[in-house]
Amino acid sequence: MLQSSTQFPKNPTINDPTSQTPIKDIQTIPQLPIGQNVPRKDKITFLVNSLTDILDNNKEAVYSTLDAWVAWERDFPIGALKNVILALEKENQWHRIIHVIKWMLSKGQGTTRGTYGQLIEALDKDHRFDEANDVWKRKLGFDLHSVPWKLCKLMISVYYRNKKFEELVRLFEGLEGFDRKPPERSIVQKVADAYEMLGLLEEKGRVVEKYKDLFDEKLKRKMGRARSAHNRKPGQKK
C-alpha cells in the first residue's frame, strides 16, 4: 500500500499547520484589547474630530460619543481627556468643553480644583456667568484661605468682564481677610477699577497705596530695560 507523502509537523497549530508556534503555546501570545494598539495621539484626534462633528451639539450626543470612546479602555483615560479639553480650547469649542468636563465629573473623575477652574472659564466664555459663579461658590470660593491665586485671578477676571463689581470687591476683601497678598499688578488694577465704578474712591486709593510695590516693581523693570538698552554698545547684541 502506498503511503501518503504529506508530512505533518509534530506540533501543529490552529488554522495554520505550517506555523512555528505549537498549540500548547497559543495561550502565551498576548491578546491586545480592541483599540489598545492605536496610538494615544490618534485616539485624541479621533475624539476631538468626533465631538466637533456633532452638529446639534447636544448633551446626549456628546455623552454617547464619550461613552463609546472609553468603552475599550482598561483604565479611565483622565490624561487623554485633559489633552482633548486643551485641543477643544484651541478651537474655542467652549460648549463642548462644558459637556466633556461635566461628563467626566459625572463619572467621579477629575474632581480637582484645576478641573473646576476649566469649567468656570468655559462657562464664562460660553456666556453663562450665573453657572460659572455657582460652580465657584460651591466648589472653590468657600475656602479662600487656600484656593490658589491662579483661580482667584480667574474669578476676579470673570467678575470684571461681566461687570459684577460688588462680587469682585467682596471676593478680594475676603482674600485680604486671610492676609493674602495679590501676586500681580493686573489683579490690583481690576480691584481699583471696580471700586471706582462703585464710587468708592477712598477704597480705590487704599488698595493702590497698599500694593503700590507691585506698580513700582513694574516701573523698575521698565526703567531697568531702558537703562540696559542705553548702556549697550553700538552693534552689541541684546
From TrEMBL:
Residues 1-23 are annotated as: Disordered. InterPro entries: TPR-like_helical_dom_sf. Residues 1-22 have a biased composition (Polar residues). PANTHER family: PPR CONTAINING-LIKE PROTEIN. This is Pentatricopeptide repeat-containing protein at4g18975 chloroplastic. It comes from Phtheirospermum japonicum.
